[in-house]
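Q: Predict the assembly, please.
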Amino acid sequence: MKWRSACPICSALDVLGDRWTMLIVRDLIVHGPRTYSELLDSREGIATNILADRLSLLSSLMLVERVNPDSPARNNAFRLTKGGEALRPVLEGLGKWAQVNLKNFHQDMLRMPDSPKKRK
Amino acid sequence: MKWRSACPICSALDVLGDRWTMLIVRDLIVHGPRTYSELLDSREGIATNILADRLSLLSSLMLVERVNPDSPARNNAFRLTKGGEALRPVLEGLGKWAQVNLKNFHQDMLRMPDSPKKRK
DNA sequence: CCGGATCCTTGTCGATACTG
DNA sequence: CAGTATCGACAAGGATCCGG
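A: Predicted assembly structure:
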């Protein structure tokens, strides 16, 4: 892990500040524990390598963990730890901010997080 | 602007979910109005083209504006609009989250946002 | 099948040089 | 000082492959 500075906000962004990480956290917050392929099916369509990468980063920082640490990977879901769960108010704040402040630029925005799309 | 989905959280991240945009917002929150080169001097060292890019994106979404809209660019600072200022609680939440949940991985993290570094 | 790893292409980032 | 142009490096995205 590479930290750009000692600023807490910057450190948070060093971990979460990319196009996908917070969306994975969002899915785990909204749906609860979720398997690899359920996360893959999330509407925005993350690629398999990116998903695996981010899950392993989040695991290494103790923000996400396996539901059954010692059983085989198959159907073994991921879930948020306490630390990951603590992001809930931040994500909710972001969502509410977007509804108010981006609505003029994005007509179709929904009121709340929604359901998965079909996989190709 | 390209929106990945109708989810508000995802839309917020379509705008803010990269390594730099929220850091620019952070600087404007912490310091108030700030010129291009003051923003450049921010401790993390953003590149000139990225800074210009992000400022123009934030302007187009009405989150940032010029302090003197009609005067020449030189020494004409940027500041947050109401919509940009509304991100303050979100950023504060992120910072507090990082202080609690990343402290084991990043020993040197500070308590609060801090002062600029010297430019190279 | 499911959970990834690998490879390859494409696009974006980021450093620096340069211009008005 | 406030940006733009350029170009190499690197990350994202997509397809496919592979072990259990």
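The mean pLDDT of chain A is 89. The two ends of chain A are 33 Å apart (CA to CA).
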